[in-house]
Design a protein that fits this description.
Strand order of the largest sheet: 6-5-4-1-7
CATH topology of the largest domain: Creatine Amidinohydrolase
Largest sheet: 5 strands, mixed
Strand content: 15-25%
Number of domains: 2
Helix content: 25-40%
CATH superfamily of the largest domain: Creatinase/methionine aminopeptidase superfamily
Structural class: alpha+beta
Bound molecules: glycine, manganese (II) ion
CATH architecture of the largest domain: Alpha-Beta Complex
Shape: elongated
Number of helices: 13
Distance between the termini: 76 Å
Radius of gyration: 27 Å
Mean pLDDT: 90
Low-confidence stretches: 1-31
Length: 470
């Protein structure tokens, strides 16, 4: 009886072991093949292909251009900073993994066994790495999903002849191409490319200018597909600003208001903040890119909340300035309404054909005039003492996105964000001290004029106070 039990137990145990084996990682990965991507609203492979085709058209005859994924960055010991893809690389390929490189050729190239005008090198699947660090797309799925004409495992770069010697120019995307790093790993394409370029010094041009100009020309005009994602990022950011207005009180700290807004980002599926959230209260409202966010709000005066959710690569950038008490003081209201007047006029000036700088000229003039009337400055040319930054930048895959700074065209998205910052000890009546105000919205240039994408969060004193009413 005992031996029969033992035998059946052993059989079960062997069966258990076998079944464990048959479910090993390989099988698990395969069975998860289709559940690898949980979201369906990323940019399409056709979008990325169209971007490569447009870039190819801009390339000079007989040239190629090389882009790298961002490297993974060590934070300390065995902890790495959260990974974020290089926006140029993402724009051209859609691949969100490190250890990858794409070569885009102007003309079709004939290699030993195939012809192509583009080659993506990328990391292969790896059981151990995937067990510890998460799934990789892998070459086979990439061929299906990314629809590049040629995709090779990055170890093939060691023996691949990219035919650069037959070209007149090869441009590459600094700074990653200039990084050395661990060249014992074939995953380190930056390092391999760096060594390759040192061995072939005459063939490669670190021509950031051309790379910058070409990518800026493309990326500054947003397609409908990109605008879907950008609008989503802006809508999430408005929701965060509105939640902040509804929930903030003087007993909170800046880091708690940061937590409030970033909860809304994550809760809506935004992968990242597009930049570190700025929550500056009291004297910190006068620090333009304040990010430590440690101050208690109590008796904090105003709170400048400059935030942007990043959704599938695209970031919003919206600033609201609010009184944690729920009511602006007389002086705060005067400064706020001057900034708002300037911003409203700046937005109206953001029309097709206008100089990129036009909104800035207008906001600066209105603020200068207003500060002079209030006696805060004596001459309009002192305006930069209290409004020390630009009014507009392009917005997209980067918060300060690339662009050509030429007259505005349909499809540009820019911010309009004037501000006034009167730090303690400024050369004016102390009643103005520690008032910092910035109002920032995201503006799409359309054939019908400027479209403010961020009207979903209130801007007027009345609307803000009304939303803040408990
Ligand atoms: N959030 C940074 C800026 O407004 O430019
Ligand atoms: Mn901002
Ligand atoms: Mn901005």
């Amino acid at each position: 009886m005992v031996s029969r039990l033992l035998i059946s137990f052993s059989v079960c145990f062997i069966f258990f072991l076998t079944s464990l084996k048959s479910q090993d990682l390989d099988v698990n990965l395969n069975s998860n093949e289709d559940s690898f991507e949980y979201e369906q609203d990323f940019l399409s492979a056709e979008f990325h292909k169209s971007r490569r085709d447009s870039l190819r058209k801009l390339l000079p005859e007989g040239s190629a251009i090389v882009f790298f994924s961002s490297p993974e960055r060590n934070r300390s010991n065995d902890v790495y900073y959260e990974y974020h893809q290089n926006p140029n690389f993402y724009y051209l390929t859609g691949l969100r993994e490190p250890n990858s490189m794409v070569i885009i050729y102007k003309e079709l190239q004939r290699f030993n066994s195939f012809e192509t005008n583009e080659v993506l090198f990328m990391q292969s699947r790896d059981k151990n790495s995937e067990l510890w660090n998460g799934r990789r797309l892998g070459i086979e799925r990439a061929k299906d999903r990314l629809k590049l004409n040629a995709i090779l495992p990055n170890k093939d770069f060691l023996t691949f002849n990219p035919r650069f010697d037959s070209l007149r120019a090869v441009f590459f995307d600094s700074p990653f191409a200039l990084e050395d790093g661990d060249t014992t790993s074939t995953d380190n394409l930056n390092g391999l490319f760096y060594h390759f370029s040192k061995k072939n010094p005459t063939e490669l041009k670190d021509n950031q200018r051309i790379e910058g100009i070409l990518m800026a020309q493309l990326r500054q005009i947003k397609t409908e597909e990109e605008l879907v994602l950008l609008r989503k990022a802006v809508t999430i950011t408005c929701e965060a600003q509105n939640k902040l207005m509804q929930e903030v009180n003087e007993n909170m700290t800046e880091f708690q208001t940061e937590a409030l807004v970033e909860f809304v980002f994550k809760n809506n599926g935004a992968e990242y903040t597009g930049f570190p959230s700025i929550q500056g209260s009291g004297e910190n409202s006068c620090i333009l890119h304040y990010t430590s966010n440690r101050r208690p709000l109590i008796k904090g005066g105003l709170l400048v909340s400059d935030i942007g959710a990043e959704y599938h690569g695209y970031t919003a950038d919206v600033t609201r300035t609010i009184p944690p008490t729920g009511k602006f003081t007389k002086e705060q209201k005067i400064i706020y309404e001057l900034v708002l007047e300037a911003q409203t006029a700046g937005i109206e000036a953001a029309v097709e054909g206008a100089s990129f700088w036009q909104p800035g000229l207008i906001t600066t003039d209105i603020i200068a005039e207003g500060l002079k009337k209030l006696g805060i400055i004596k001459h309009k040319n002192e305006v930069r003492k209290y409004f020390m930054h630009g009014t507009s930048h392009y917005l997209g895959l980067d918060v300060h996105d690339v662009g050509t700074y030429t007259p505005l065209v349909v499809g540009n998205v820019i911010t309009v964000e004037p501000g006034i910052y009167i730090a303690q000890g400024s050369d004016c009546d102390p009643k103005w001290w520690n008032i910092g105000v910035r109002i920032e919205d995201d503006i799409l240039i359309t054939t019908e004029g400027p479209e403010n994408l961020s009207t979903c969060s209130p801007r007027t004193v009345k609307a803000i106070e009304s939303l803040m009413e408990k």
